[in-house]
């Protein structure tokens, strides 16, 4: 079998920043987003020092060299736009703040890919200039999705693509990246190669950049794979895929240079601040927040059950609250709107509410279920759910929910001042429920009396506009199966 070669006149290898922590990228990004957001806007040197201190605290980094930590910070900033620069200060980028607040890594990667293009200021100016001089004008995620939609034009997602095909037939071919060759021609080339049983150079060094984008598209739930070789459209994400394919958004400050196929390093450097403003712009008309119930459901039957569960417990809770106090009806309506908008925190609380109802039912105290209530955030009572024990004692629950492609580390939680104070006054009646939702599992971890655990030196706590608590799940807390409410 012959090895496929791109004609020499069309060969140009694209590249971008490759994080040294790619194997742990979801854990690192959510940690860094939270830390950068807490640092806030500061003079550039002070900001870098604060972020570096946080990176040293990341598990495994304590003894790393400063040079490595600096590389982590600059790679995160360059590739994901988590830091915005002004003339005198650095500050958290909108993308970092969104991830810290929403805890939605799937959404984070969708937005990243939606903005990502070549050329872009995610590499050094010299590399950007090389792409400009070649006339590169390319949005990789958009093109891959368009290609796969064309390949599956009869519907469904039966036809996939490999990383080596993406590398050699898309990324490194100027007919695609410069000339915007139609997807039908590119797909024809790929299928011809398949018929002729062409092979590709699959060396890690060769396919790594195209492979990164494919991996990020899988984390974003746009693609799925069954064998880690062939990648298919995830048809459950059709709305997001259409947004990608129909988007005309583009960072255009390089366009004159691209058209003329020339520029200089200063011109390229002058575009850097514009690039980071672009990737951190407000995406008012583009909502990529994750439909969590669809994301975690194993099949359509389970999805229907989860939605029924969520709707039932929400409706019950809202009805009860309105009956008790008609004055809060408007605030309840706003709260319910947030739930229907697929907010991760709200749906996580809804799943835990269902879990608590089922726990009490299985314990033989169905008569107590009406006492289990979700508390709207606006009431600021320091917990999300008021629940009950089988012996009718109160249980106060703070829910912390995160969604990711792969299971995350979960032994670090931030509690606000209000939550910490409430936990301090309610002692062993207070629980933190850590709910981690991923493609492969739903993990629920219970931590009882966090303030008491801290006072007895069983967990660590660092004051940080509230409290950052760190714990060893082998020593404190316990796992529980996440129960699904059934009438």
Q: What is the topology?
A:
Blueprint: H1 25-39, E1 42-43, H2 44-57, H3 66-80, E2 83-85, E3 89-92, H4 94-102, H5 105-115, H6 125-133, H7 140-151, E4 161-162, H8 163-171, H9 174-177, H10 183-195, H11 204-219, E5 223-225, E6 230-233, H12 238-246, H13 255-260, H14 265-269, H15 272-279, H16 292-296, H17 300-324, H18 329-340, H19 344-362, E7 373-374, E8 385-388, E9 394-403, E10 412-415, H20 417-426, E11 430-437, E12 442-448, H21 450-455, E13 460-463, E14 467-470, E15 478-480
Parallel strand pairs: 9-11
Antiparallel strand pairs: 1-3, 2-3, 4-6, 5-6, 7-8, 8-9, 10-14, 11-12, 12-15, 13-14
Helix pairs in contact: 1-2, 1-4, 2-3, 4-5, 5-11, 7-10, 8-11, 17-19
Largest sheet: 6 strands, mixed
Helical fraction: 40-55%
Order of strands in the sheet with most strands? 7-8-9-11-12-15
Work out the helix count: 21
β-strand percent reads 5-15%
The coarse silhouette is globular
The domain tally reads 3
SSE class: alpha+beta
Rounded to the nearest angstrom, the distance between the terminal CA atoms is 61 Å
Low-confidence stretches: 317-342
Return Rg in Å. 25 Å
Oligomer: single chain
Q: What fold name stands as the CATH topology of the largest domain?
A: Trna Endonuclease, Chain: A, domain 1
């Amino acid at each position: 079998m012959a090895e496929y070669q791109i004609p020499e006149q069309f060969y140009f290898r694209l590249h971008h920043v490759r994080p040294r922590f790619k194997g742990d990228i979801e854990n690192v990004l959510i940690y860094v987003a939270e830390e950068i957001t807490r640092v806030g806007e500061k003079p550039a040197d002070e900001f870098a020092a604060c972020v570096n201190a946080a990176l040293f605290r990341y598990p495994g980094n304590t003894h790393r060299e400063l040079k490595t930590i600096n590389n982590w910070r600059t790679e995160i900033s360059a590739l994901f736009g988590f830091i915005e620069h002004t003339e005198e200060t650095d500050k958290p980028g909108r993308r970092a703040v969104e991830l810290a607040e929403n805890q939605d890594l799937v959404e984070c990667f969708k937005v990243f890919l939606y903005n990502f293009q070549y050329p872009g200021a995610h590499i050094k100016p010299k590399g950007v200039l090389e792409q400009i001089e070649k006339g590169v004008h390319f949005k990789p995620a958009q093109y891959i999705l368009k290609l796969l939609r064309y390949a599956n034009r009869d519907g469904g997602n039966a036809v996939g693509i490999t990383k080596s095909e993406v590398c050699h037939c898309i990324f490194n071919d100027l007919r695609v990246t410069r000339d915007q060759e139609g997807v039908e021609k590119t797909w024809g080339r790929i299928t011809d190669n398949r018929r002729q049983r062409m092979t590709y150079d699959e060396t890690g060094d060769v396919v790594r950049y195209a492979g990164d984008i494919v991996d990020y598209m899988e984390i974003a739930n746009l693609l799925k794979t069954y064998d880690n070789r062939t990648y298919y459209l995830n048809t459950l994400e059709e709305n997001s895929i259409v947004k990608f394919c129909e988007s005309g958004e583009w960072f255009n400050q390089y366009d004159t240079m691209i058209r003329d196929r020339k520029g200089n390093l200063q011109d390229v450097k002058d575009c850097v601040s514009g690039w980071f403003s672009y990737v951190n712009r407000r995406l008012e008309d583009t909502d990529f927040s994750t439909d969590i119930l669809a994301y975690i459901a194993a099949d359509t039957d389970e999805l229907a059950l989860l939605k029924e569960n969520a709707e039932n417990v929400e409706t019950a809770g809202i009805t009860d609250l309105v009956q008790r106090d008609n004055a809060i009806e408007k605030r309840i309506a706003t709260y319910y709107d947030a739930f229907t908008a697929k907010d991760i925190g709200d749906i996580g609380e809804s799943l835990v509410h269902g879990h608590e109802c089922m726990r009490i039912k299985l314990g033989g105290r169905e008569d107590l279920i009406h006492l289990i209530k979700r508390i709207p955030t606006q009431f600021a009572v320091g917990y999300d759910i008021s629940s009950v024990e089988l012996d009718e004692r109160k249980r106060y629950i703070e829910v912390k929910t995160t969604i990711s492609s792969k299971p995350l580390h979960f032994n670090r939680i931030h509690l606000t001042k209000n939550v910490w104070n409430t936990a301090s006054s309610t002692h062993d009646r207070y629980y933190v429920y850590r709910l981690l939702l991923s493609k492969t599992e739903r993990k629920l971890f219970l931590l009882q009396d966090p303030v008491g655990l801290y006072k007895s030196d069983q967990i660590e706590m660092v004051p940080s506009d509230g409290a950052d608590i760190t714990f060893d799940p082998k020593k404190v807390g316990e796992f529980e199966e996440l129960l699904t409410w059934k009438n």
